[in-house]
Amino acid sequence: MPGNRTPTWAPEEDAGPDDALLTVRAGEGDEEAFAVLVRRHAPALVRLATRLVQDRTEAEDAVQDAFISAWRKLPEFRGQSSFGTWLYRIVTNRCLNILRTRKPQSQLEAASQIPAPEHSVAPDRITEGRAAIVELHDALAGLSAEQRTCWVLRELDEQPYAFIADTVGITEQAVRARVFRARRHLTEALGAWR
Amino acid sequence: MTTRIHPPDTPPPHDPDDERLPCGRLLSQVWADWEEGTADPHRADCADCTSAVAELEQLETAVRRLRDDTENASGYDPAPLTERVMNVVRLELRPGHPLPLGAPDEDMWLMESAAARVLRTAAERVPGVRSGSCRITPEPDRPGRVAISLHILAPTTAPSLPMLADEVRREVGAWADHRLGLEITGIDVHVVGFADEPDDSEKGIAP
């Protein structure tokens, strides 16, 4: 789409009909068109959900439920937004609910869930890099579900504030305030460890 | 990039998590300026602002590492998840109307969504055409007959849209008749937009 900011979660390969056509077809009951949409959008949505809930299995469940709910709602979907944006919103809000119902996690549990690094870097860089990630990861556990969601969309998914406001359904000013509080908490937490 | 000449003088409704630095600037403002690349000449000479920005930069370094660590979407195999989703979807299909096939007393039916898939493919036999909505509805007054309404995107290179619509109508009519055995009363072709020509770069100049 010329003129639009390319979202960082856009599918990398773009073979086949575009999303708008597939969405219309799926809305008319073409399940094969829907399967193409699922395959195309699943990787970015699982990455988003994993960043939000920090657990791959829970993330995949959230994405799976989001797609099924989208299939049910498709006949009423009038293309107010793109399929990708629509699913991004459904997944984000599902994850937000998961975070809200979660009991406060101990820092030890949180740290144990960080995946091992997949790339090879010099050992001292790994140690230094891992330490920073573990610290940040622990500090994230101290954020509220709402702060954490806005922070992840801004900092890890690199979305514009206006987009986050639309996705979460709050004002842009409220998003900025949540991201600010999250940063405040995180800088203090990281500082305290040093 | 904008430049802040005067200190921001609107004291916002005070956020209890915000902080006024000893120099008078609000921490939230200093960080927002940093994030948005707003230059503030004051900042370069101010130890308070410099240290506030340094804290945020330190956080951003850790954030970049965490982002890279979780940036593995391209390596994700969507097949198992797609399969799980489609297993549920196949239990909740929306096949549309049953469409009559053959003579009225034959009692043979084809579901609309299956027929629509075939007719969309037929329309796309016309070069450059992409098909979207395809509704096939039984004619209430003429038992055994159906009407087709098809939305297409036309290629930008089409010299005449009426001629293009005729071509699409011919392809769709032929497949509806020969392949599906539908008795059709009419085919409405709606050009709802233009399709970007695929593979332009490879084809060079379009004919």
Which regions of chain A are unreliable across 5 or more consecutive residues at pLDDT < 50? 1-13
Sheet with most strands of chain A:
none
Instruction: Quote the distance from N terminus to C terminus of chain B.
Output: 45 Å
Helix-strand pattern of chain A: HHHHHHHHH
What is the top-level CATH class of the largest domain in chain B? Alpha Beta
Q: Largest beta sheet of chain B, briefly?
A: 3 strands, mixed
Assign the CATH topology of the largest domain in chain B. Alpha-Beta Plaits
CATH topology of the domain at 14-104 in chain A: Rna Polymerase Sigma Factor, Chain: A
Let me know the average pLDDT of chain A. 84
Total helical elements of chain A: 9
Proportion of beta-strand residues of chain A: under 5%
| Secondary structure tally, helices of chain B | 7
User: Which strand order does the major sheet of chain B show?
Assistant: 3-4-5
What does this structure look like?
The complex is a heterodimer of chains A (194) and B (207). Chain A is an all-alpha fold. Chain A has a domain at 14-104: RNA polymerase sigma factor, region 2, helix turn helix motif (Rna Polymerase Sigma Factor, Chain: A, Orthogonal Bundle), CATH 1.10.1740. Helices cover 70% and strands 0% of the residues of chain A. Chain A has 9 helices and no strands. Chain A has helices at 19-27, 31-53, 56-73, 83-101, 107-112, 123-140, 145-156, 161-168, 172-193. In chain A, α1 (19-27) crosses α2 (31-53), α2 runs antiparallel to α3 (56-73) and α7 (145-156) packs across α9 (172-193). The N and C termini of chain A lie far apart (46 Å). Mean pLDDT of chain A is 84; it is low at 1-13. Chain B is an alpha+beta fold and 207 residues long. Chain B folds into 2 domains: 1-76, no CATH class; 97-203, Alpha-Beta Plaits. In chain B, strands 3-4-5 form a 3-stranded mixed beta sheet, with helices on one face. A two-stranded antiparallel sheet of chain B has the order 1-2. In chain B, β1 (98-101) and β2 form a beta hairpin. In chain B, α1 packs across α3 (47-69) and α5 (112-123) crosses α6 (161-180). The longest helix of chain B is centred in the N-terminal third of the chain and has 23 residues, at 47-69. The radius of gyration of chain B is 31 Å and the shape is elongated. Chains A and B meet through α1, α2, α3, α6 and α9 of A and α1, α3, α4, α5 and β3 of B.
